[in-house]
Amino acid sequence: MIRTRILPILTVVAAIIAVWYAFAVVLNAPFERSAAERAGETISFTEIVPRTMGQQRPVLPAPHQVAVEIWETTAEKSITSKRSLIYHAWVTLSATLLGFMMGTALGILLAVGIVHSRVLDKSMMPWVITSQTIPILALAPMIIVVFNSVGVTGLLPKALISTYLSFFPVAVGMVKGLRSPETMHMDLMHTYSANRSQTFWKLRWPSSVPFLFTSMKIGIAASLVGAIVGELPTGAVAGLGARLLAGSYYGQTVQIWSALLVAAILAGLLVGLIGWIGGWLNRRMGVREARA
Amino acid sequence: MSGNSVISTSALDLVFETNDGPVHALSDITLDIRKGEFVSLIGPSGCGKTTLLRVIADLEHPTGGTITVNGISPHEARLKRAYGYVFQAAALFPWRTIADNVGLPLEVMGLDRAERDARVTENLELVDLAGFEKKFPWQLSGGMQQRASIARALAVQPDMLLMDEPFGALDEIVRDHLNVQLLKLWAATHKTIVFVTHSIPEAVFLSTKIVVMSPRPGRIHEVIDCDLGDDRPLEVRETPEFLKIAHQVREGLAAGHAYD
Ligand SMILES: Nc1ncnc2c1ncn2[C@@H]1O[C@H](COP(=O)(O)OP(=O)(O)OP(=O)(O)O)[C@@H](O)[C@H]1O
Ligand SMILES: [Mg+2]
Hints:
Chain A is built from 11 helices and no strands. By secondary structure, chain A is mostly helical. Chain A has 2 domains: 59 residues, no CATH class; 200 residues, MetI-like fold (Orthogonal Bundle), CATH 1.10.3720. The longest helix of chain A is centred in the N-terminal third of the chain and has 37 residues. The mean pLDDT of chain A is 88. Chain B has 260 residues and is an alpha/beta fold. Helix content of chain B is 38%, strand content 26%. Chain B is built from 8 helices and 9 strands. The radius of gyration of chain B is 18 Å and the shape is globular. Classes of the chains: A mainly alpha (292), B alpha/beta (260). Chains A and B meet through helix 8 and helix 9 of A and strand 5 and helix 3 of B. The site of adenosine-5'-triphosphate has 13 residues of chain B, from strand 1, strand 2 and helix 1. Adenosine-5'-triphosphate binds next to strand 1, strand 2 and helix 1 of chain B.
């Protein structure tokens, strides 16, 4: 277990951190050089290296700077504080989860309609696909502004952007999943003269569960992106997106990178959680484990 | 059409329209199967055995001729759940336990829990699978899975069983064993059974009537009566009567093939 799973992960993480440090040095060095030049000094490379890792507004903050910032804004701040990253992460997470649930429900409903109706199959699918060709960065401000103008602010507009991004993978995955039963199983239900709803609940739905979880993993990551993007256009005061925005206004690169990292960790946790639930459900449904 | 005929077809025709042109799967099939008969369909691959069985089961629709099942159309017979169908593969749902798989048709029929449980227990006992209720399909061998699928077909309590090479994927030892069990079941219940097979000994051992079919277009070459008595131990396969009928079937198959 430790050897086969933890070790490779740690190796990759160590490699990423090493590369990160190297880039931090390279990218932050010019600032130190010109500072030294202005002061009329000449500094050697060995003098530059430590300085590149302690700048106030580095081009690329060093990993430990980001780690310290995350520590200070999570563990050392009360959760209700506006400076707590946990508070901001929660704001984004709540929009993500709400949007994801609505997106999943919408995606499943669409898939059920598409699988059961030829007309919907022909008429809906092109729209579903077209909807995803509109760049979300163009659409998000419009959604936020339109809702703001009718007095709806905060959670819901952001969640709707998450919905918009997450319904698509779920719809596509579920259409595939609901169509995945073998012909023989469909024939079997036919010999029982099962009606559509019986065939759906006893065959199509259970067959589609693995597809559902695979597409929900993509959906939740997309939801998180949607919620963050939804926080950008209005200059929201709370959420990971707001932290990114504020950070870039004031050139607080350390703050930007810690928000980014927290978002990435959050995405990883969410995807992992869904994968875990999917695996648990699979085992409960008696499906043979891959390495039983 | 005799009074107790269960399946009756006349000049049945079925043409599949495919991208490579029409495929004449069944041609001029006239066949009468009476109540309690064990009828085997035998013939080379592609001669329309499965197609004929599927027409009886209302899974395929003939393009010509007439067919009645229990005196009514196959469609009506299906709605009345006149038959149990056993596929070549067990076709168990992997997410259901063996008991729940056997209970599946009963759920569809809307039977209550107690009735379902009783029928599941009874039919699993019948196929020697008592004690495996809580197992999932992958935990059972191929032969056990196929037995579970037979229990599932029997749970409906149909008067008729349609079986499409149910033992085709099993080894000979398991196959012999299941043949004996099937024969016992048939002798005890006298259900009408239509049985598709590739195996001459299997057909002769089980049947009261063997329908030899030939391909392109799929048609009936010969119908051979075959009655080795109700009590048939496996050893009956070494008797002269058995070998005579087997020989007759083999000749029929060879002659049917010689057409093309
Ligand atoms: N759904 C279908 N569409 C088109 N052609 C089909 C279809 N089903 C069967 N056929 C064709 O009809 C013919 C008869 O097929 P069928 O499956 O009934 O043969 P079979 O006797 O059961 O063969 P086997 O012993 O290999 O199972 C074959 O030529 C087959 O290709
Ligand atoms: Mg066949």
